[in-house]
Amino acid sequence: MLRSLLLTLLPLTAAAQAPPSAPPPERRFAVDELADGAVLSLSLGFGALSQAILSTGEIRPQPPSIPTDDLLLVDRWVAQSEGNETSGLISDIAAGAVGVYVVVDALRAGASDGGDSGWTYALLYAESAACNWALTNLTKIAVRRPRPRAYLARDRAERAGRDFEGSSETDDALSFYSGHTAITAGLTATATYMAFVRGDDELEGWLTLAGGAVLTGVVGWQRVSVRAHFPTDVIAGAMAGAGVGVLVPHLHHVEPGTLRHVQVGLAQDADGHQLLSLSGRF
Length: 282
Description:
Blueprint (H helix, E strand, L loop, with lengths): L1 H16 L15 H23 L17 H4 L9 H27 L5 H26 L4 H12 L19 H20 L3 H24 L5 H22 L10 E6 L5 E6 L3
Antiparallel strand pairs: 1-2
């Protein structure tokens, strides 16, 4: 009898003395396999295929069709002076630094696992970059704006008394808008949004915002300095990139006790048929 009573009380005593288990960490971002898989498939597909098409020379470049003096005032000076070839390397290094930060941030999220795994962060960064890649390439193909160096080549030929036949390189008519700037602004905007949502230290969000703005500015200025883009190309790239970069994590943001902004999934009706469901806050 006494032995049975002790066996009953011991587990209860141990449970009372054991420290309470920590609550599960809150998820700040959530992914949807169906919706996110579709977005990545579309953006990567359009980005890669459009890039492949551009590399073949199939799309003929559009030569400058107006005098340099008729360009917007903010763009005109770029087409009137030679560029600095070193600036292209600097823009690549600055954009690469953003890529390194993205990898480190995803690894940090995976190590700390504050409810959001490193895979979640990696997917959000991948969506931001892929969507900007596709949108930039499709815009370049649609607009086909000559780069500043095309104006410089035409004006040099005219001053030398030679006929300007134009360039045969497709890339010389892909000025609008700057892909380097768009992807840099997009990734840094995504990083800034997630840094503020983490909420561990508000200073981290402001530092990420400042660092992202500086890197985006450096990339944009160097793309102008190498005469690959006009200032308006860079401004448009920064605006488009930052817009996509904020929108991607915002649509994945989960407030405690609420639905995601948009959630796509599969549901089953009473007859066993599979249905596509859409839910969230609109």
